[in-house]
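Exercise 7. Predict the structure of LysR family transcriptional regulator from Comamonas kerstersii.
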Amino acid sequence: MRLDPVSLRLFVAVMEEQAIARAAAREHIATSAASRRLSELEVQLQVRLFERSNRGITPTAAAYTLLDLARSVLGEIDGIARQMREYGSGMRGHVRMVANISAITQFLPEQLQSFLSQHPDVQVHLQEKVSSEIALAVAQNAADFGILNPGSYGCELHFAPYRQDELILIAPKGHPLTAHRSVSMRQALAYDFVGAHTGSAINAQLTRSAAQLDMPLKLRIQVTSYDALCLMVAAGLGVGVLPRQSAALYRQTLAIEAITLDEPWAHRQLVLCMRSYEGLPPVARALVDHLMQMQAPTPS
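Solution. The predicted structure, encoded as tokens:
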């Protein structure tokens, strides 16, 4: 049995209007065609829905039962159409996103909150990875897009500017370097460092800088998060490097000081990467557009 939604809508209209002619006008169909559809519906269902007389039509008990069923079915059909339209316009769906810790701690909380408040039916699955792993995840279609530091990752990816950030040095209060408003890496390398985990862009930059200066990088300890790095620095285990806005989150509660890092590489550009913008699912494309358009927070 194949029930026609048009006939079901007409049937509901007849029940609500209590007249075929008014229901036909409401559904923009000729009265004769409406009458024929109702008769065909009765044949399909093998049940009489209306008693007909010179005074009009009278619904049977079966018609009242069908009314509830028809409204339910039509509601589900309308829901399917609405949800598919929302998918098509990027209003509903699941986005797979990877980003480095700098983007996650500085920019994404506010941006994702803004996007998800506008699109509550969207789900964002966000994973933190180092930049090399981000590029690989996007290239292998394990993620729709990522946010990372620029570089050569051996993958055919499209990159777009995202945000700029600034790396600074943090030191425990009372440390000799806190007497300076800004320091160079040559000054900082005289002291022990608390480093980020292996593979991080910051660690790689510290290693390159030390090699260029022909000085050792004395990594006393390595940690896997900014909060752990700040805790270790506050405990006096060394100095560390992290983005200025990330450091601002911990300076309020920990005994650490932020010092400007007088190095050209301290000012960085974060980028979005994807296999192709046109190939993104609509909901992922909508999130990318939002991330690129929304202004970055003012540094503290």
